[in-house]
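Margin note from the TA: students keep mixing up input and output lines. Inputs are the sequences; the output is the structure of the whole complex. Example:
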Amino acid sequence: MARLDLLKFMPFRLSRLAAEVSTALSSEYIEQYGIDVPQWRVLATLGFREEPCSAQFISQCTRTHKSTISRAVTELLKNKLIERVANADDRREFRLQLTAKGTRLYEELIPRLLRREQDMLSCLSVQERKDFATTLGKIEASLDLVQTSQQAKAKAAY
Amino acid sequence: MARLDLLKFMPFRLSRLAAEVSTALSSEYIEQYGIDVPQWRVLATLGFREEPCSAQFISQCTRTHKSTISRAVTELLKNKLIERVANADDRREFRLQLTAKGTRLYEELIPRLLRREQDMLSCLSVQERKDFATTLGKIEASLDLVQTSQQAKAKAAY
DNA sequence: GCCAGATAGTTTCACATGCAACTATTTTGC
DNA sequence: GCAAAATAGTTGCATGTGAAACTATCTGGC
């Protein structure tokens, strides 16, 4: 009879690990700034990219449902952490960018989150971390998870 | 100015990967058997362990909230996939076990899920898989995620 | 033996999220 | 140039989940 040890089953382990890591990390911005995970993803995308982005773009590259992004954007606008400008070329679309306040928050948050990430990986050697990242990359690629705006467009064109 | 590429940020990558893997996998039992993830976790625990388990035990070793497990158990009982027997030693607790029907479903499901897991890891060499599992184990251990019934009890005793 | 606190399990509540329908706009095919 | 299809974004709805309150039972201190 086939048996399966849940604790050694990769999908379960990933799910459990991701949940734990996410909880540990999000406490950093939820408690202190009242920002939730979708809002953080919007800020992270806008802070990293140079130019303003559309909600659609953020949705695609964070792989977060567009309604979730829409609600996160609404909240961030209300708190004046981001602002949006109409796009003359396409009036369905808005360009989103960080406000000065949003940029300050972003710059305050990033070093702390990067430190937390390093803390969580501190149980690994430098080589192990590299290998782990590489392996994750292979799995992501095989599941077609590596989504850039270019690929998103290419896909849509299919 | 510190920047953070979400696509290279481990917490985000784990979250995205876990979600994708979970969706890909759960279609195997959701569509065909109408079983959701918490229900699957209950079945997997009961099928793997020899003896009947309490809901509490399942909750701890799957790290799933007890109310979620409670609801999954209710549903599984309704569908006669598991049964519960009163525990004479402690009448607050019920011992849960698979019914014949539940065992059949379990035995049908396991090989298919294991095959899916292997498919998802097929992009890795044997050595890479081993290393990946080892690395996950280290991170889990450092986050104190490796929960056995013994550890759970030891913790509770603190 | 009894009472306070712990524990197993259930249920209520609040809330986050995905889906689908919707509006407004743009693009495509003819 | 116009109708049909596609797209950006919003919103209503259904559902799943965690926190907390609750019931029933057990345990430990005295």
